[in-house]
Amino acid sequence: MKSITIKGSERESVGKVSTKALRNAGMVPCVLYGGQNPVHFSAEEKSFSKLVYTPEAHTVEIDLGGKKFNGILQDIQFHPVSDKIMHIDFYELDAAKEVTMEVPVKFVGNSKGVMAGGDLQVNQRKLKVRALPANLPDFVEADITPLDMGNKLYVTSLPVNNFKILHPDNTVVCKVKISRAAMKAAQEAAKAEKAAKGKKK
Fold first, then answer.
1. pLDDT tens by residue, 111-157
2. Which distant-in-sequence residues (6+ apart) come within 8 Å of 39 by Cβ?
3. Other C-beta atoms within 10 Å of 182: how many?
4. Largest Cα–Cα distance of the chain, in whole Å?
5. CA angle at 101 for the pair 97 and 102, rounded to the nearest 5°
6. Fewer CB within 10 A of the terminal residue: the chain, N end or C end?
7. In what residue span(s) does the Large ribosomal subunit protein bL25 L25 domain sit (predicted)?
8. What is the tens place of the pLDDT at every residue in 40-72?
9. Helix or strand or coil: residue 102?
10. SS3 state of residue 9
11. Phi/psi at 182 (nearest 5 deg)?
């Protein structure tokens, strides 16, 4: 999995006053959990853009001026009006411990049903997976080639390699719906066939 480096500074004071001052200065207060003790730090808001405003999944290298930690984004809080990042929680990675995170679904192939006029309806754009940090996938691949009109693709059909998908077996990733145009064409074809049979009689 790709990694993004976030450069920040450890926080000595974590009270409301210092937190407000940080935000006013364009900084985001953060906490890294998972180690022996939580690590409080801050970083510039713009340094999180490639991590937060992207459909891709990344691990994070947190560089606090000499101290480096590997983690993943655990939780993020946005301001309800301005949508600015208010706070971020990270979870420290341990090479020997499995971790859970969401990764995007990458759709590949050309569906028979879509080529015949159906509509692809995506139910899951991201999936929760669990794996050792070294085995975390950048994405889960979903091949839609075999899907005909009316068919569904379940999580059980997705390839897994050294990771687990944490969704029930009956979770639908996508399906091919019969489009209105295809339905109309089928109805008209059926009418025409019925009319042709009537003439033969």
1. 988 888 889 999 999 999 999 999 999 999 999 999 998 899 999 99
2. 10, 31, 32, 62, 64, 69, 92
3. 16
4. 92
5. 160
6. C
7. 6-90
8. 999 999 999 889 888 889 999 999 988 999 999
9. strand
10. strand
11. -70, -40
Lookup result for tokens 């009418």: 191
Taking CB atoms within 8 Å and a gap of at least 24, the contacts of 39-45 are: 39/10, 39/64, 39/69, 39/92, 40/10, 40/11, 40/14, 41/8, 41/9, 41/10, 41/11, 42/8, 42/9, 42/11, 43/6, 43/7, 43/8, 43/9, 44/8, 45/84, 45/85
Backbone angles phi, psi at 82, to 5 degrees: -85, -15
Domain boundaries 3-93, CATH class: mainly beta
* Structural domain spans, the chain: 3-93, 101-183
CA 138 to chain centre: 10
Type of residue found at 39: V
Can you tell me which residue has the tokens 């990694």?
3
